[in-house]
């Protein structure tokens, strides 16, 4: 039926018969019955174009349905090539998850045509992603499948539920509209009823159709009956050597099924074919069983035993042979390897297969192929069974008659499962099916041995020869397979066994009835037909059962539950239940015949009576099973196990558009990585001014004037206690208001130039620092006295001893460095000789030293030979606004030097500035910084309706790392991350009591995802309240940003800023951390609710959940546990649940998985809180690292065994797990807490030991009525030995250490590579480290890949840093570097490049790629306090120069242009005066 893409031009023109069908399709729903190759897809493409153009198609899509995955791409590419429509293709591998509602919505919004498998579209309707009335046209490819329980029929059932006036148009395509030729009229009518369409055929242009769809020559090829024996075949057969009858039953080889297929193959292909089948089948099954046995044994090995295994010691010597009988079978198979496979590595081809070893049927086939062969020959041999296709495709090229002419390959369905070897599976995966067809189309293969998968749909070229090797079973198979032979010279051969009258008669019936069957639908009237949901065939459900079927529609969403969808929904739910390697796959179990019962796995957290559902009496077993499943899903939906879209879980890819409280998550696709925002800022000049009195060490010293009433603030800066008082409105005399404002601004500019910036400020200021009188008013007289000479005066007359220690002056050759007058030195002149030991002493006189220092190109200073000098002390000008939240002494920008410096008085200028004023100016940057922080903290508290979080904590929470302040939000972010996780988990645990851990974990990931936090932050405009400004004062920031703000009647209290959007999610978590640090979990709930997070509201847990669990007696089994915990449980059933492993399968209680989910978050919170409080100076990275050492499987398993003895309480029903725990308990008992913290990565205890501890902790939290403080106190005691070992400076694990070291070394081409140590076990257990593609360490094997990675990283770190090693990093690294240095150890190299603005989650990065490894390394460098990204060595040196000591201070010289500009300004001011 398909049109070859290689046989058409870019522009196709319709044939007349295609136009005829197209016109009739426009008039109503039709089924086009046309032969294969007649161009039905082209007609559908014309209809698609027509449908899109209709006015009724607005905001609707067109759906093109195919029955097989392989057809999706083929038909999608055809429509894309010949239309301008937006076509999307979906199959199982390419479709979104059903929980990804946002992803599907985007697809529907941005597409015109969906080409997809029918089941996906049925799922979209079931889960209410789309509705039938939003579809304008449905095209059913190979529509004869619309019968029984095929997805086509399920879609049509939803079609019939849609009002007739809004139903889509239906267009079906098939070459075989009639399944049952015995009752052709009824078979045709059934198809028409099911599709609500009329079967039509070409009437007016039949001759043209025949010309484009020629019929092949049909031949019956008779072959002799197969003999019972083949005397020429060797007597020593594989079957005899394997001794299959004597194999022990515990091998689970399913020999009955194998031998049955062996006999079928023997009869059909002969002895060699049967032996080939036996060889491949037994080889695959033995390999599979050996792998399972090996894997099971490897799971129980200790670390030392695993190391021995990886070094090559046979596992039989370590733990005994998994199964000697399997090894014996492997040996027998090895004897026959060259017989069936040929040499393993090249060499001569496998031996030829004489025709005497083949059945008469194969012999006739070979002779036919030989007789029909031409240089351009292409053919298909159709068989019924997959294993026959596999064997026959392998045999034909080895028959001497065909060796040089036939190149064959199998083509079977992709659902072969585990019964085929890898060789057999070639071409069977969806992609490989397409590859095989491509090889055939390109004539690199000339013969396909195919099952029914090749009968329809796939885009084959017309074949010269098509052979039905096995009997034709039904009319559709006959028509479809014959359609592959559509050349005018093609031949279609039916092979019939000699004397098999029934086979010949069936073929003749099909052949002779075809013209009559075509006549049935060609001559039919356009009579109406009655829609029906089911076909009328013999194996249909009973009509009474159909009438009794229910259909449940969820009112809130329109999601649909039917009998046909319920079984799949139950299976999907069970597949999501988490399990370890010791627990079998969870599946629903059906029992009963006409009354079916479905039993759900006990791991589902449901009451026992909700795990079993019995359906009503039905008239067929299948219908009874569907009915039971329907009742189960309907009940589980009522219990909220399925949501209102009938989904057991939302998307696992973080693309869900709602949180678990059904609150919409804003679409962030349009949010840029860097945000341009207006930050809340109090600094404005307004018509109303406010005066804030500043006190230094309790003495009122100055006034701060601005247009905003500022909050009261206090801080310690440079050893001085600074505080502000409540603001008072500053009332200016209206007559002099403008001049007074100007005077305050000029005075402030003067003070900033002298004490802070050392450079002029051109923009208007937004705050003024002014002197005040004794009655705390602005001292305009003092301002007037100082401002005439803002850059200082050279007139030293009148300056005497009374000014010592109070007068500020500056050398005009070294602007920006004020000095405090120590004394006048009339005894020293420029011609004086400097005292020995000073820097000046290197020159004969002071003058010669100064001339040397200040002489620059084209500029020689004028310095007199005589005249007095002045001696001063360098003032520590404050170039940073940093302050400490703890009022600690920060490192001063300059050391406190008491040595003095002498300058000629003619170069120096002085300014009128009392001591209390210059001290206040020095403190002004830190004060403004503090006031801004407190102002923003209080604004954000009001704007977001946050609880009463302490000011300092809230300031810390909204300060970004980019501010380079002594504090930022990173510590609180780490703390808040644990708070967020716990609050979300507790809410989920209680809101969804019947959802299992897999569902809960899926929802948790959505609620704590960075994109959710970012969306909630933007929704609440948190970005307007953050502090991103750097605290460097190279530029004074408290100025008017624009003229609009300067002249606005209502100035906006906002300042433009930029920062990465990822900063918002960190601030969200930091605010949670600050709220918990202030008021515990209760305040955290209030803050989280205010931030829009899914916490279930602000009500405390003890009020919400205190009585959620019924009290039950505690078993004597737990007496010792309760004594160790120091807590008497009220809910005994919780303890039973907490120790029940999923393998136990109890019907009385669920497994511990839900409690483990709760306990994991609780333990994480307890450890994080402990570290946060105990180590107040630890960085975020140090806190995270210490936490990870305690909250990991080895550490918690150690506590479970040593502290609580939980291994003795565990309820397990799995031998392998019990053995594994038994082997590891002595190891955990002997290992110290320090060793488990430092070397825990080398341990791999069974996960159940860690899980049971977390589940006990979860039970503890519930039993304490969710009183976190009480439960946390008990948990701390349990973990005390472990916690006592933790400290901020724990060494990193080898992987982290390697990453940080490599990043700091500057190499960007390092990666890990995993491999397998045991080829027969498909388990990645080995790891290597590669540098620039060269393996420098490994492969090293361990019990799990994580441990193997640690071992490989440890070795790599050693060899890369060893100068004697051939893999010393400078030898193997080829990364280009700046400058001449090849490899600098300086850590600054790691920070040469800034991190991307939107850093992906660590879980999304792959360390097996160079880029992924490098990004993870850079993140680790940042987290662990590495270099500041983006600040170059030159920038750091420049900063050091400006903040230099006294000796270095003298080296810095003023820029000539700036010096001259200041001189000119002073001259102009003197002229004005």
The largest β sheet comes out as: 7 strands, parallel
The poorly predicted ranges are 1-11, 416-427, 525-539, 892-897, 1378-1392, 1426-1456, 1468-1473
Strand order of the largest sheet: 3-4-2-5-6-1-7
Amount of beta strand: 5-15%
Secondary-structure map with pairings?
Elements: H1 16-27, E1 30-33, H2 40-52, E2 61-66, H3 70-82, E3 87-90, H4 101-109, E4 113-117, H5 118-126, E5 135-141, H6 151-160, E6 169-174, H7 184-195, E7 198-200, H8 206-212, E8 217-223, H9 238-242, H10 255-269, H11 271-299, H12 303-310, H13 315-319, H14 324-335, H15 337-340, H16 360-372, E9 379-382, H17 386-395, E10 408-411, H18 422-425, H19 430-441, E11 447-450, E12 465-468, H20 475-482, E13 491-497, H21 501-522, H22 543-548, E14 552-553, E15 560-561, H23 563-575, E16 589-591, E17 597-599, E18 612-614, H24 621-638, E19 674-680, E20 689-696, E21 699-706, E22 714-717, E23 720-724, E24 728-730, H25 737-757, E25 767-770, H26 780-786, E26 808-811, E27 819-825, H27 846-854, E28 869-874, E29 900-904, E30 908-911, H28 915-943, H29 951-957, H30 970-991, H31 997-1008, H32 1010-1019, H33 1043-1047, E31 1054-1060, H34 1062-1090, H35 1101-1104, H36 1119-1125, H37 1132-1138, H38 1153-1174, H39 1180-1190, H40 1193-1202, H41 1215-1230, H42 1233-1238, H43 1247-1263, H44 1268-1285, H45 1294-1305, E32 1310-1315, E33 1326-1331, E34 1334-1341, H46 1345-1360, ...
Parallel strand pairs: 1-6, 1-7, 2-4, 2-5, 3-4, 5-6, 8-13, 9-11, 9-12, 10-11, 12-13
Antiparallel strand pairs: 14-15, 16-17, 17-18, 19-31, 20-21, 20-23, 20-24, 21-25, 22-23, 26-27, 26-30, 27-28, 28-29, 32-33, 33-34
Helix pairs in contact: 1-2, 5-6, 10-11, 10-17, 11-14, 11-17, 23-24, 25-26, 25-28, 28-29, 29-34, 30-31, 30-34, 30-38, 30-39, 32-34, 37-43, 38-39, 38-43, 38-44, 40-43, 45-46, 45-48
